[in-house]
Design a protein that fits this description.
Order of helices and strands: EEEHEHEEHEHHEHEHEHEHHHHHH
Number of helices: 14
Strand order of the largest sheet: 5-4-3-11-10-9-8-7-6
Radius of gyration: 20 Å
Strand content: 5-15%
Number of strands: 11
Shape: globular
């Protein structure tokens, strides 16, 4: 099973060096996170920004424009993502994002959250391929940028994807990204590699696999099951729990424990400093950092204890003490399948 490749004097267990994309995780993988990550860890080839949800007939909000500006995204190619079920709203957003300097935009057909999917957006569109067809037919001839699509297998029915992929094949998309779960599953249970393989075979576009890549061997297993190589792999919760995963997949062995501890602390401090500039008030700052610790804690041997103390912090002083205590704890081993759902 283990294929190897020499890269920079190291060996990769994943075969040829894969193209890796940072997944769009709302509230987490924003511009501050992306910039801190590339300064501390590197390894991603590109990123997808968490979705913006444009309002019909109105421009993007100032905070959304700031998140997606070229100035806030230096050093890493970032694709914006739009969540809407209205063709004119989607087209208007494409034009606005083009004016910000973007050449490609992703249309979100995968958001599983009930408040979104239940209103017919994101994965809520998957049972309605005729609506997807109508939106693409309206938008693509006028689109000023390339369009990709990110989807799940279905809303509740895991076979929704079959008719949806047939629709996508009729349109000039830049790529299709599949997370092989239904919206009803959220992030629970195993991904469905059997249906992912069916989608891979059906899809005529560049195909990207997303979901449950926690150690390099997960890509090897997925490649074997898919019987081919997707053009790229999207990493989300696995890399939030273990920021060294990206370089590890690319063949660079993780550093020793003390070096990892130093880099993790530097990464945390860069996040904290960045959000102090972006967010207003200590309450917003503390809440955002607590969100990150749901994942960062998994780099340590006792994540539950660390999360509990961080969550009990009610001001920045007690938070700072909790962080110092966390970095005194033993790190998780790099050679186990880290838990990735907080």
């Amino acid at each position: 099973m283990e294929e190897t490749l020499k890269e920079n004097g190291q060996e990769s267990q994943t075969g040829k060096v894969p193209e890796l994309i940072l997944a769009p995780i709302r509230g987490i993988s924003d511009a501050v996170y992306r910039q801190a990550f590339i300064r501390c860890f590197k390894g991603f080839d590109r990123a997808m920004a968490p979705f913006v949800q444009p309002r019909r007939g109105k421009p993007l909000r100032p905070g959304e424009r700031r998140q997606l500006s070229m100035e806030a995204n230096c050093g890493l190619s970032v694709t914006p993502q739009v969540l809407t079920n209205n063709a004119e709203t989607l087209l208007s957003s494409l034009r606005e994002l083009r004016d910000l300097g973007h050449e490609e935009v992703n249309w979100n057909l995968g958001c599983p959250h009930p408040t979104t999917a239940g209103r017919g957006k994101g994965a809520g569109l998957l049972p309605h391929p005729e609506r997807i067809e109508a939106i693409l037919a309206y938008v693509l001839p006028k689109a000023p940028v390339r369009i990709s699509v990110k989807l799940r297998l279905g809303y509740r029915n895991p076979d929704d994807f079959q008719m949806v992929v047939e629709v996508l094949n009729r349109h000039p998309l830049s790529e299709v990204i599949l997370h092989p779960r239904t919206a009803a599953q959220m992030y629970e249970g195993d991904i469905d590699l059997e249906r992912a393989e069916q989608a891979f075979r059906l899809c005529l576009h560049r195909f990207v696999h997303s979901g449950d890549i926690r150690v390099p061997g997960d890509i090897v297993k997925a490649r074997e099951r898919l019987r081919g190589n997707p053009t790229a792999w999207m990493l989300g919760r696995g890399v939030l729990a273990n920021p060294f995963l990206v370089a590890w997949i690319k063949g660079r062995l993780p550093p020793d424990a003390e070096r990892r501890r130093t880099l993790l602390r530097t990464f945390h401090d860069e996040l904290l400093e960045g959000y102090q500039t972006w967010l207003s008030g200590p309450g917003h700052l503390l809440n955002r950092m607590k969100q990150h610790w749901d994942f960062l804690a998994q780099a340590f041997a006792d994540p539950h204890r660390i999360r509990l103390r961080i969550r009990r912090s009610h001001d920045l002083a007690t938070y700072a003490n909790a962080v110092t205590a966390a970095y005194d704890q033993p790190l998780a081993t790099m050679h186990t399948n880290l838990e990735c759902n907080p």
